[in-house]
């Protein structure tokens, strides 16, 4: 179930109804009940047209079905689910690099003619059905939602100490908005893969033998890397941005 919290400087019933309606639709799409929520009007804290939306979700899972990352071994494959935008991280950087005057301009190298504003407002997809589809065809040993910290931090938290995840950028597409932010901000290797999701929104570690089935279970999924032995002085995640995919 889900509970929401909406705070504003001045509550507008129409705006509140639109926001809560969006939450209701998202919950229904993911078979999650919206049990209720809380609203607060705080003119001393928020400007009249500003609002803050937060929420919490609670679920139940059989203990036996919880992925056990201790089972991850060298040779396992990493399946990545595509990101459609910034999702949960990188907006402070985007606001600093892209001025309001540019919001309605088209992104360079975007064949669809997407504007900066459309790219920045792209909805964060739910990966629930995709994850279930992959679990139906493969033994998922570990998974990571790529939020703040990017691939470098989020994947690292799901691996045993003696394993590292090796990614090859050639195996997936970086969305144009992220390529533009990397270029404008002159982001180095670590900055781009820690600040942005760089086109991967969710990762799952599966046995190599099941990797193709896992990839084919979800449109847009890709085998983006694999697991190797990790030495004590090595990082938990290695990303080769320019190397040609050969495995």
Domain unit count: 2
User: How many strands, which pairing sense, and closed or not: the largest β-sheet?
Assistant: 6 strands, mixed
Largest sheet, order of strands side by side?
5-7-4-8-6-9
Radius of gyration, rounded? Answer: 20 Å
CATH class of the largest domain: Alpha Beta
The CATH architecture of the largest domain can be named as: Alpha-Beta Complex
How would you name the oligomeric state of the polypeptide chains in this document? single chain
DSSP helix fraction: 25-40%
Q: What would the CATH topology of the largest domain be?
A: Phosphoribosyl-aminoimidazole Synthetase, Chain A, domain 2
Shape: globular
> Between the first and last Cα atoms, what is the distance in angstroms?
42 Å
What is the ordering of alpha helices and beta strands?
EHEEEHHHEHEHHEHEE
How many H/I helices? 8
Task: Look at the structure and give the mean pLDDT.
Answer: 94
Number of strands: 9
């Amino acid at each position: 179930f889900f509970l929401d919290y909406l705070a504003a400087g001045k509550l507008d019933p129409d705006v509140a109804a639109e926001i809560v309606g969006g939450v209701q639709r998202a919950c229904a799409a993911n078979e999650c009940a919206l049990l209720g929520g809380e609203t607060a009007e705080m003119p001393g804290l928020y400007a009249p047209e500003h609002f803050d939306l937060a929420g919490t979700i609670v679920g139940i899972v059989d203990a036996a079905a919880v992925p056990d990352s201790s089972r991850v071994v060298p040779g396992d494959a990493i399946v990545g689910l595509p990101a459609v935008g910034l999702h949960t991280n990188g907006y402070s950087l985007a606001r600093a690099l892209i001025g309001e005057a540019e919001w309605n301009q088209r992104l360079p190298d975007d064949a669809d003619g997407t504007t900066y504003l459309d790219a920045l407002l792209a909805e964060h997809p739910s990966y629930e059905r995709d994850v279930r589809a992959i679990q139906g065809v493969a033994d998922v040993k570990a998974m990571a939602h790529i939020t703040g910290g990017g691939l470098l931090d989020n994947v690292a938290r799901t691996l045993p100490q003696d394993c590292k995840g090796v990614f090859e950028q050639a195996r997936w597409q970086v969305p144009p908005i992220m390529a533009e932010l990397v270029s404008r901000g002159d982001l180095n290797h670590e900055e781009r893969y820690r600040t942005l999701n760089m086109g991967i929104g969710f990762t799952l570690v599966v046995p190599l033998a099941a990797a193709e089935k896992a990839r084919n279970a979800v449109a847009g999924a890709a085998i983006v890397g694999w697991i190797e032995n990790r030495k004590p002085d090595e990082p938990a995640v290695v990303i080769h941005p320019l190397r040609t995919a050969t495995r």
